[in-house]
Design brief:
Number of strands: 29
Number of helices: 22
Distance between the termini: 31 Å
Strand content: 15-25%
Largest sheet: 5 strands, mixed
Radius of gyration: 26 Å
CATH architecture of the largest domain: 3-Layer(aba) Sandwich
Number of domains: 4
CATH class of the largest domain: Alpha Beta
Length: 725
């Protein structure tokens, strides 16, 4: 029996038919239990809601919304991470209104994604809080679709009587919300997620990950996307457990905040993309690790981007003294079109690894050393292997198969094909896109005509019921008739030299004459930027690619830190990277090509005399290099975010500035002094010992910055490093 089939207080069986029934059930049976607690900057409790309080607020908001619109209308949600967002989401469900989650608008920059979503979903309402409303107003000129809807700051609404609320006419087949994909290769598409889709995937998560009384969730994931919303927010309500959540910026600035929250609240469940585990190993000191207790953690999902065996090993070794157990790692695979997940490694299961030959994988076969069918091949022992991490297995009514995408015939075990999914977790299709819905959601097997299946576009193979994801079909590189998976080449490059940043590279093919040739673009770690030796890195990368993949690389470009293009799910936008490379739009540290030409693109060292003019000149050159703008287009009084400075770029800027000045610079300084003019004056005055008061500014601590200030800058980076629709 799934968790949504419970005994109600009257003693009968209660099978939920909507999320509204779920929350109503929790409010009736656990009224005083804490449902959600928001952690300001990941540390300070900034408010909480019990199940009964959330139910009351949702009913109140639903009554108010229905005074302006009708059930079935759409509402665009533009909240920062907050309790307001949760109330707004459930308030829409309680009104029968379809929420359309999105992150708050970017400041001083046109937001094409927001314009596309607003035009496609045609919402009647725009819901946000009072702090975000000003940013919405500033976006109307470049986002005209916003002007066609009614704007409501829900935290400023006049009260309504929740007792007059009536349960909406919704059931399992009713549309719950629209989850827009990242739009990495096309305009964002609205995935139609029903109440039944959500109930099924939440039930399967209950089976896989054993949520129970006493379980606790900690999450920093963006709650505007499927992993953060469904796993971090909706799953706790479904399972009747508390969720402690923080804004993504809190984790990105200090990764230890995530693990400290897990330790403080003795959390049992959490989740993050692969890069986050690497970031914890790199950015959390030994002293900080000593104060952590991760012994209560039983499920730490690793999903939303390729799962690396090396990452899991490094994290487990680094945090074993804090009580972390390897069985807590639960790799999973899914996408917005499958509501959340399709396969998962279950609670208390060891992650399953498979060692396969790299070249055979390129020929659609997963061949393991010692496999009898290859034992007669004398060259087998000399072939290079890759270690792949299983993304788990399907549970419940979900079926996962691999299919030859051309013939549409099911593949046997250990044969690489496109991953197809069927079952109640598969969403209803794309909003107002019947042709794309038919193509993506209407897959049928040749011969048996079984289906319909969701065609994921991901490649992989099945072995002993375990699903191994090997790459995206559209990104496969074909050179001399051999398929090569770009993420394997990227990993090889990143492991070839310590100066290269993990999970921040892209491999793709370009046309050179009549042939496809391999190009790699790869970020350099910030700590190596000043002393990088391009020739050494190029030689190491070329040797590694030739050794492992038997490929000759045509060109390599080393990039500034935080310049890789990624989707909102953290997956590399290889086609966008290819376009950037061909158009010379990347901030280049150095390049090499097969003709042996090597060019340096690093910033030259500047004079260290700390005058206002020299500091301003250094800042202008840094911004020009980072943004790709002409130096003469950098205005001293213009805001940094007008130059495309996102959150991580601001952190890199602070570190580079501190290194040049020979002093430590606070990572939040760009938000406190948002122009070159203001920041250069502050820096020079501080160096000269002049107080901040005399400059007319006070350096505010991070916890005094509004969420809107941070999220507006951050979310462009969240798109690049976090789950693909």
């Amino acid at each position: 029996m799934y968790a949504h089939e419970k005994e109600n207080p009257a003693g009968g069986e209660n099978s939920f038919s909507s999320l509204v029934e779920v929350l109503r059930y929790r409010a009736a049976t656990q009224p005083h239990d804490t449902a959600y607690t928001f952690l300001l900057n990941g540390e300070e409790e900034a408010g909480s809601l019990t199940f009964a309080e959330l139910d009351t607020k949702a009913r109140t908001l639903a009554v108010r919304l229905l005074a302006d619109v009708a059930p079935g209308d759409r509402a665009l949600l533009l909240y920062p991470s907050s309790l307001d967002y949760i109330v707004g989401f459930f308030g829409c469900l309680y009104a029968g209104i379809i929420p359309v989650p999105n992150y708050p608008p970017k400041r001083n920059k046109a937001d094409r994604r927001l314009q596309s979503i607003a035009a496609d979903a045609d919402p009647a309402l725009l819901l946000c809080n009072g702090d975000t409303l000003g940013d919405v107003e500033a976006r109307v000129a470049d986002t005209p679709a916003l002007s066609r809807m009614r704007w409501i700051a829900t935290d400023q609404l006049a009260g309504a009587d929740p007792s007059v609320w009536r349960e909406p006419d919704v059931d399992a087949d009713s549309l719950a919300f629209l989850q827009y994909t990242s739009g990495s290769t096309s305009s964002p598409k609205g995935v139609m997620v029903s109440h039944g889709n959500l109930l099924q995937v939440l039930a399967e998560c209950d089976v896989s990950w054993r949520f129970a009384r006493g379980s606790r969730m900690v999450s920093w994931l963006p709650i505007f996307h499927d992993l953060g919303l469904i796993y971090g927010i909706l799953q706790p309500a479904y399972s009747g457990i508390p969720s402690y959540f923080m804004a993504p910026v809190a984790f990105l600035q200090q990764p230890v905040r995530w693990l400290k929250a897990i330790s403080t609240y003795q959390a049992s469940h959490t989740a993050a993309p692969n890069f986050a585990y690497d970031l914890c190993v790199e950015r959390i000191s030994q002293e900080q690790r000593g104060g952590l207790d991760l012994s209560h953690l039983v499920v730490s999902m690793n999903a939303a981007e390729p799962v690396r065996a090396q990452t899991m090993r490094r994290f487990a070794e680094a945090f074993a003294p804090a009580g972390f157990r390897t069985t807590a790692f639960c790799p999973a695979f899914g996408m917005a079109e499958s509501t959340l997940k399709a396969t998962a490694t279950g609670h208390n299961e060891e992650s399953v690894l498979a060692e396969v030959y790299a070249l055979d994988l390129g020929q659609h076969r997963a061949v393991t050393p010692g496999n009898d069918e290859r034992s007669s091949d004398a060259k087998v022992d000399s072939r290079k292997t890759l270690t792949l991490v299983s993304s788990g297995h399907a549970v419940g009514k979900t079926r996962v198969v691999t299919v030859d995408p051309e013939t549409r015939q099911q593949c046997p075990e250990n044969c690489v094909g496109e991953i197809w999914i069927s079952g109640p977790i598969v969403a209803q299709g794309y909003w107002n896109r019947p042709e794309q819905t038919a193509e993506t959601f209407g897959g049928r097997l040749v011969g048996s005509n079984e289906g319909p299946f969701l065609r994921t576009g991901d490649l992989g193979f099945i072995r002993d019921g375990e699903c191994y994801v090997t790459g995206r079909r559209k990104d496969v590189i074909i050179i001399r008739g051999i398929n090569h998976y770009p993420q394997d080449i990227e990993l090889t490059v990143q492991q070839s030299h310590p100066a290269l940043r993990p999970d921040c590279g892209a491999a793709f093919a370009i046309d050179v004459g009549d042939e496809e040739r391999l190009v790699v673009v790869q970020e350099v770690r910030r700590t190596f930027l000043k002393d990088v030796d391009p020739a050494e890195i190029f030689a190491a990368a070329r040797r590694a690619i030739l050794d492992v993949h038997e490929l000759q690389v045509h060109a390599i470009a080393l990039l500034r830190t935080a310049s890789m293009l990624k989707t909102s799910s953290g997956k590399v936008q290889r086609q966008a990277c290819k376009a950037h490379y061909l158009e010379n739009r990347f901030p280049i540290v150095a390049t090499w090509n097969v003709a042996g030409e090597e060019t340096a693109g690093r910033l030259a060292a500047l004079p260290t005399g700390q005058t206002v003019h020299s500091v301003q000149r250094w800042m202008m050159k840094w911004v020009a290099r980072r943004s790709g703008l002409d130096l003469h287009g950098i205005r001293l009084g213009e805001s940094f975010d007008a130059f495309g400075m996102d959150s991580l770029a601001a952190v890199e800027f602070a570190h580079d500035l501190g290194a040049w000045l020979g002093t430590e610079i606070e990572e939040t300084i760009v938000w406190n002094y948002p122009t070159i003019e203001a920041l250069s004056l502050f820096v020079v005055n501080q160096i000269r010992g002049i107080s901040s008061e005399s400059t007319g500014r006070n350096d505010r601590p991070l916890d005094e910055l509004s969420e809107v200030e941070l999220v507006g800058l951050l979310y462009e980076e969240i798109e690049r490093i976090h789950s693909d629709g």
